[in-house]
Each structure stands twice: as C-alpha cells, then as structure tokens.
Design brief:
flat; single chain; mainly alpha
Length: 70
C-alpha cells in the first residue's frame, strides 16, 4: 500500500495490498496464497486481463476525474 500501486490492485481479484512494514499482514497474505491455490490461479488470470486492458490514457482520465471531484 505505497504510492499509486494500490490504485491498480483490485483486492482479492487482481492482487493483495498489505500495510508497509507490517510483517504480520504480509505473513497472513502469504499463508492465504499458499492455502488457496485455485483462487490465486483465478487471480493471476484476472491480473493478466487487467494488464491487457491497461491504458495510460484511461488511467490519466480517471486520475483527473478524481482530482476534479476533490
């Protein structure tokens, strides 16, 4: 959960986010990955599709819309 990376992750669908410096949180997620291989395989496919659909233009547009709303 550092910088803009968190904005690109759909928790549980394309990846996980853990608190920086929180070893217990990271360990919890690592255990989840080891214990839920089928879910992680689906997540891997979701991540791949997300990367294929990524567009810098779309990202910038979403960011500008967010800035305008604030």
């Amino acid at each position: 959960d550092i910088g803009g990376v968190a904005e690109l992750v759909e928790v549980g669908k394309t990846g996980f986010i853990f608190a920086p410096g929180d070893e217990e949180d990271l360990l919890r997620l690592m255990r989840y990955v080891v214990e839920n291989k089928a879910k992680v395989i689906r997540m891997k496919k979701n991540t791949y599709q997300s990367v294929l659909q990524f567009s810098a233009d779309k990202y910038i547009e979403k960011l500008l819309n967010l800035i305008e709303s604030v």
